[in-house]
Design a protein that fits this description.
This protein is α/β, with parallel strands linked by helices and 312 residues long. The chain has helices spanning 51-58, 82-91, 109-119, 126-139, 156-168, 186-203, 214-220, 238-243, 248-255, 262-267, 301-311; strands at 6-17, 25-36, 40-44, 66-71, 74-75, 92-95, 174-178, 206-211, 223-228, 231-237, 287-292, 295-299. Strands 6-7-8-3-9-10-12-11 form an eight-stranded mixed sheet, sandwiched between helices. A four-stranded antiparallel sheet has the order 2-1-4-5, with helices on one face. It is 36% helix and 24% strand. Strand 11 (287-292) and strand 12 form a beta hairpin. The chain has a single domain, classed as 3-Layer(aba) Sandwich (Rossmann fold). The protein is globular and about 65 Å long. The longest helix has 18 residues, at 186-203. The chain binds adenosine-5'-diphosphate and magnesium ion (MG).
């Protein structure tokens, strides 16, 4: 169960690329949300809406164009000593979509997993280093014998387990999982999600779990944020988001999830989202507003009233 302590506070985060040029992209445009300690925060939206950039900026792979990211109350993007930066790099880890591209094909699994242990000097001897690698392999459902093999000898699901072991090796507090199951066979997806859930409980981890559709995130996330074109359009506890989706874009995403019942599936209508339906007046303030406790929607004052009526 998630505690109520804020582990991360993302405030008015902006990440623009090619600023001032004709191809300027506002990949993340004034996004604010908190991530509580011990929770899984899901982040969804279609390809290109800015999910990865949000994750990468939080973890400091990019310098933010503007805004703040506080980790345990400390600004991640502020001026820091080398030692503090190294500590941030240890506490925040990332798991990637393509487990093959993210594992160095020339390194043995043991060296891939131990990379962070070496960088951060977390093992006092060669024996301690290898014991830790063996333990991590077991933690993710692999075994000792796998340590001397190379990435190409593993299946997609196994490689993702290796990616998870590598992230866990430095005992992080926070993990960004960027579409960790999108490249895997459907039959393997649930296994990897279950492993991540188990690890979250055992190690008290906090996740930002990125996905492009709403089907698997519901199962793993405590709360879900929906992104559209660089903006966060809705954020709510998972159950609430599925029960009462308010933003028309969230409704369109939900309508895209196939249902298991073939009869309902045949008549299922995919809603499309047209931003023009908001019909905002010029200069009408459109803000991220709290419609009910913990349920936020990007909307105008007028829409806020309509949404509140709807929830009554
Ligand atoms: N390094 C970059 N330089 C320029 N544009 C980028 C860069 N990275 C991402 N983008 C653009 O930013 C937008 C958001 O991309 P991304 O965060 O990868 O979306 P998502 O992960 O939701 O698919 C896209 O329009 C993408 O083309
Ligand atoms: Mg992405």
């Amino acid at each position: 169960m998630a505690e109520t302590k804020k582990l991360l506070e993302i405030k008015n985060l902006k990440q623009y690329f090619n600023v001032g040029k004709p191809n300027e992209v506002r990949a993340v445009d004034n996004v604010s949300f908190d991530i509580y300690k011990g929770e899984v925060m899901g982040l969804v939206g279609e390809s290109g809406c800015g999910k990865s950039t949000t994750g990468r900026t939080i973890i400091r792979l990019y310098n933010a164009t503007d805004g703040e990211v506080l980790f345990n109350g400390v600004n991640v993007h502020g001026r820091k000593s080398k030692k503090e930066l190294k500590e941030f790099n240890r506490k925040m880890q990332m798991i990637f979509q393509d487990p093959y591209a993210s594992l160095n094909p020339r390194l043995k699994i043991a060296d891939i997993i131990a990379e962070g242990i070496d960088i951060h000097g977390l093992a006092k001897s060669q024996k301690e280093r290898m014991d830790r690698v063996y333990e991590l392999l077991e933690t993710v459902g692999l075994n000792k014998e796998h340590a001397n093999r190379y990435p190409h000898e593993f299946s997609g699901g196994q490689r993702q387990r290796i990616g998870i072991a590598r992230a866990l090796a430095v005992e992080p507090e926070f993990i960004i999982a960027d579409e960790p199951i999108s490249a895997l066979d459907v039959s393997i997806q649930a296994q990897v999600v279950n492993l991540m859930k188990k690890l979250q409980h055992e190690k008290g981890l906090t996740y930002l779990f990125i996905a492009h559709d709403l089907s698997m995130v519901k199962y793993i996330s405590d709360r879900i944020g929906v992104m559209y074109f660089g903006k966060m359009v809705e954020l709510a506890p998972s159950e609430e988001l599925y029960r009462n989706p308010l933003h028309p874009y969230t409704q369109s995403l939900l309508s895209a999830i196939p249902v298991p019942d073939p009869i309902t599936e045949r008549t299922r209508k995919r809603k499309t989202y047209d931003p023009a339906i908001h019909n905002y007046e010029l200069n009408e303030p459109v803000e991220f507003r709290e419609v009910s406790p913990g349920h936020f929607v990007l909307c105008s004052e007028k829409e806020l009233k309509q949404y509140q009526m709807k929830l009554k």
